[in-house]
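User: Hey, my collaborator sent me this sequence without any context and asked if I could get a structure. I don't really work with proteins. Can you help?
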Amino acid sequence: MTKRPTRNEQAAQLFGEIVDTIVSGGFDLVDVLRKGFHACGLAGWTEAQSWFQKELQGHPAGADLPDYRRNLPG
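Assistant: No problem. I've predicted the 3D structure and written it out in structure-token form, which is a compact way to encode the shape of the chain:
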């Protein structure tokens, strides 16, 4: 009988896939962010998962934006 991977093992596998995808180039950023969101959920990393959600769906109106999101054109 095959042992089912734990949630942390599944998260680690997803993070590995994300790294491989980014290193290979020509990736879909939305897909990478979605996988990161899912991996953080599996690992129970709510703060990191929240970061992925904001990057996917946008920051709430009136929220303080992180430095890397300030003064961007468009």
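In plain terms: The radius of gyration is 15 Å. You can pass these tokens on to your collaborator as they are.
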